[in-house]
Write a structure and sequence with these properties.
The complex is a heterodimer of chains A (188) and B (590).
Chain A (H helix, E strand, L loop, with lengths): L1 E8 L4 H14 L3 E6 L9 E9 L12 E6 L2 H6 L4 E10 L6 H4 L7 H10 L1 E5 L1 H8 L5 H11 L5 H11 L5 H12 L3
Parallel strand pairs in A: 1-4, 4-5, 5-6
Antiparallel strand pairs in A: 1-3, 2-3
Chain B lengths: L1 E5 H11 L4 E4 L6 H7 L6 E4 L3 H13 L4 E6 L2 H12 L8 E7 L13 H6 L3 E3 L4 H17 L4 E6 H5 L1 E5 L15 H4 L7 H17 L6 E4 L6 E5 L2 H9 L4 E5 L1 E3 L3 H10 L2 E5 L5 H8 L18 H10 L29 H11 L2 E3 L24 H15 L6 E6 H15 L8 E7 L28 H8 L4 E4 L4 H12 L3 E7 L14 E3 L18 E4 L8 E4 L9 H5 L5 E3 L2
Parallel strand pairs in B: 2-3, 2-4, 4-5, 5-7, 6-7, 10-11, 10-13, 14-15, 15-16, 16-18, 17-18
Antiparallel strand pairs in B: 1-8, 6-12, 9-11, 19-22, 20-21
Classes of the chains: A alpha/beta (188), B alpha/beta (590).
């Protein structure tokens, strides 16, 4: 069983990320359940999604302390879900910061130190997904870069991921998304 | 064929496979996607109606004509639809009828947590309660069958987690169902006394019959383990959460949570000395067992509010020794800087609330994205209850303020979707007993969409796009009703907005301001972005206080003081920050 948590900011397209994970699992002949947050929090609030992939999945909810991989589409949001992680879990952090209201209004400090400290307990992979996506030709493909990194750590064939990805992006964005996926997959 | 679907998509699929013909809804989390998915099936007439009551009525019309019909809505939507529902249920259902209610344990995006299983019982409906997407699809089909077999409207009650969770579904093909047509029968369909007397008995009888079938319907599943004296009665997602803990007990999983089979429950009570009910929100099944005189435990072990996660169930079961030594777990979310939702970059609500906040007026809010004005970062709205409620509340408070010698103006904000949903009637009511010392200003935020639920059309969308067929002219409508003091303002002209609020709140009477900018999210408006010239900026933070996602204070090289900064990737060029800047430091890029 692999438990994957995705955390980010409303509007980052997390629902598509969990959809792609679910469809990749289906194609690979595995069982899967996902969660998504939908509703008012889409307006720049904290959002999250999750996927559990394995032989047989009962609950879509990841038990506390059992998340294997956390995809932090925004650093503060990665930090927020630390409690869900197992020891030694992989944490992918997209470096682009989106500041919450209280930080914009100078009422709170962005927790840079705590985010940095994640490295003490987890395998942290830092990536400027927005810059990498721009390189691939489409700024909107930032999530695809991160999905590429995830794919590297899953027991699902690379071709399956690519196939599902192509089914889920508009035709004109296909090239950029495949490039972005490859950048992620090869990311060191 | 296998595919992965959300619970919402699976319900739509089930309705299609079962030969469903008409579906109506009003958008509300967590059920929005049901109707959006139904739009993909050509055989089904579907619509987002103007509110849940109308949606239910549209679906009722189809059912009366012998077509399979469904109405879907969020839990509080059923309150709006309750009037027709409570009488429709007295009729003998012709075409299968299913009401889908999306309940929201934990209130992820709702103003209350009402448990609509209570509504199902109140309205004499059988209630099915799915726990994953396969069940969502299957139960929709079973509910339509039951509805026709027992001539009863059925409630498919689903929780937000199951609506939005994806899981495997075996899909089938559509089985066409003939539309049988309408045979007039006043005794059956005209609910005037004395025609209403007999249905009271009929409702009781059909429920008793359904309760008999509950004894062995396949969706009520008994999973027995040897050597245990404990039975957990559960349903929906709670069953799957329970499986994660793999407790050494027998489990009775109810696909139909109402009515229960008295015979089955008594048999189980004879066999098991301990019965535990595991359910989210209210003690519904627990109460049903208690009414039968069957001792059980439930809400003394599990919370009556919020979602029950695997960990919560573990803690509850530990209290009765079923699970041992579950270690103290960390909270999944660590305490850190919160991230509440905020108005989007370019949101037309921003200048409105910036003006209202600075005007220091009392604001009564309503339901929509503009509810966010009540969040701490705005602190610009004081009351919010339910769809359309702002209008009546404002009138009532205004009357009491004046009688109490309080002459302060009162402002009320309502979106166009909410106005059409249930605000209009409140507006008509404003014209009754107008007093000279009334001072009410109603701001209708006409953004041409139902924004909060993802940008569904509403009755004024056609004023902005070709693709929407309804283009109600709100101003003409209000004038026709009898309002004389109605003005339109483009709120991106900040001065004009400020002036309008100042004038209307500064004089007695009842005024309406209609703001005209469309939703920035649905209509993806993007102009050249703005930037701050740090040499001109005085660091006053007036722009930062408009709480726009791209704007913050920043250290610039070679400048001592913090100056404001606009993230060019996020700015959509609405110009509000540039207009509030007192020194002209914010400029549009070329």
């Amino acid at each position: 069983m692999k438990n994957i948590m995705v955390a980010g900011v409303g509007g980052q397209g997390l629902v598509l990320a969990t959809k792609i994970m679910a469809e990749a699992a289906l194609k690979a002949g595995l069982d899967v359940k996902t969660n998504d947050v939908v509703g008012l929090s889409q307006r720049g609030g904290m959002v999250w999604g999750s996927a559990r992939i394995g032989k047989e999945v009962h609950s879509p909810n990841i038990p506390v302390g059992e998340a294997d991989i956390l995809l932090g589409m925004e650093p503060l949001e990665a930090l927020r879900w630390k409690g869900l992680l197992r020891k030694g879990a992989i944490v992918v952090i997209n470096e682009k910061r989106t500041y919450p209201s209280s930080v914009l209004l100078e009422q709170a400090e962005y927790p840079e130190k705590e985010i940095g400290d994640l490295e003490q307990d987890y395998v942290v992979i830092r990536v400027d997904a927005v810059r990498e996506a721009k390189e691939a030709g489409n700024i909107k493909a930032a999530n695809t870069v991160v999905l590429g990194i995830l794919a590297r750590h899953m027991d699902i064939d690379r071709e399956v991921w690519e196939e599902v990805l192509l089914e889920n992006v508009p035709p004109k964005a296909m090239d950029a998304n495949i490039k972005a996926f490859n950048i992620g997959y090869e990311y060191q | 064929m296998k595919s992965v679907m959300t619970g919402n998509q699976a319900i739509a699929r089930g309705f299609w496979e079962a030969g469903g013909r008409l579906a109506a809804s009003y958008p509300g989390s967590p059920t929005v996607e049901m109707l959006e998915s139904l739009k993909d099936y050509d055989e089904i007439y579907s619509e987002f109606s103007v509110n849940e009551k109308v949606a239910l009525e549209v679906a009722m019309g189809a059912s009366f004509y012998g077509a399979r019909a469904m109405a879907s809505m969020k839990h509080v939507g059923v309150n709006i639809a309750a009037d027709p529902l409570m009488t429709f249920t007295q009729t003998k259902i012709n075409g299968g009828f299913v009401l889908v209610s999306g309940d929201d344990p934990g209130m992820a995006s709702s103003q209350n947590e009402q448990d609509n299983r209570m509504f199902g019982k109140f309205a004499n409906m059988g209630i099915l309660y799915p726990g994953n997407s396969q069940e969502a699809k299957d139960y929709m089909k079973i509910a339509l069958e039951m509805s026709e077999n027992f001539q009863m409207p059925m409630l498919l009650d689903i929780t937000s987690r199951v609506c939005h969770s994806r899981s495997m579904v075996d899909t089938g093909t559509r089985v066409e169902k003939e539309i049988s047509g309408f045979s007039p029968d006043r005794e059956k369909y005209t609910m005037l006394p004395p025609h209403t007397f007999k249905p009271q008995h009929e409702m009781k009888e059909r429920m008793e019959k359904l309760s008999e079938t509950a004894y062995d319907i396949p969706i009520n599943q008994l999973f027995e383990k040897e050597g245990t004296d404990t039975l957990i009665v559960t349903s929906g997602l709670m069953y799957y959460n329970l499986l994660e803990l793999d407790p050494d007990v027998s489990i009775y999983k109810l696909g139909m949570v109402y009515p229960l089979s008295e015979r089955r429950m008594r048999e189980l009570a004879d066999k098991y000395s301990k019965i535990i009910v595991l359910e989210e929100m209210m003690p519904f099944i627990e109460n049903e067992l208690t009414l039968l005189g069957i001792p059980c435990r439930g809400k003394d072990l599990f919370s009556f509010t919020g979602e029950l996660h695997i960990e919560d169930i573990g803690k509850g079961l530990e209290k009765v020794g079923i699970i041992e030594g579950s270690e103290e777990l960390e909270a999944p979310r660590v305490q850190t800087v919160p991230r509440p939702p905020m108005f989007c970059a370019g949101c037309p609500h921003r200048p409105v609330f910036d003006v209202l906040k600075k005007a220091k007026v009392r604001v009564i809010g309503d339901i929509g994205c503009y509810s966010m004005a009540a969040l701490d970062q705005w602190d610009a709205s004081d009351i919010m209850i339910s769809m359309g409620a702002s209008v009546g509340i404002t009138k009532g408070m205004n009357k009491m303020m004046r009688r109490n010698g309080d002459q302060a103006p009162l402002v009320s904000v309502i979106g166009d979707g909410t106005f059409f949903h249930s605000g209009m009637t409140g507006f008509v009511n404003l014209l009754h007993q107008m007093d000279e010392d009334d001072n009410m200003t109603f701001i209708i935020l006409e953004n041409s969409t139902t924004a909060m639920t993802g940008g569904q059309h509403n009755a004024s969308s056609g004023n902005f796009t070709q693709t929407d067929d309804m283009k109600v002219d709100v101003e003409a409508m209000l004038r026709a009703i009898g309002f004389t003091n109605v003005r339109k303002v483009d709120q991106f002209d900040y001065k004009a907005m400020k002036e309008a609020v100042k004038e209307e709140t500064g004089r007695n009477g009842t005024s309406v301001i209609i703001t005209t900018r469309p939703c920035a999210l649905r209509f993806k408006i993007r102009e050249k972005n703005f930037y701050v010239d740090p040499k001109v900026c005085i660091g006053c933070r007036t722009c930062v206080k408009t709480n726009c996602p791209p704007i913050r204070m920043k250290e610039y090289q070679g400048i001592d003081k913090l100056k404001s900064f606009i993230d060019p990737d996020m700015c959509v060029g609405c110009s509000v920050c540039a207009q509030v800047c007192p020194v002209g430091a914010i400029k549009r890029s070329q």
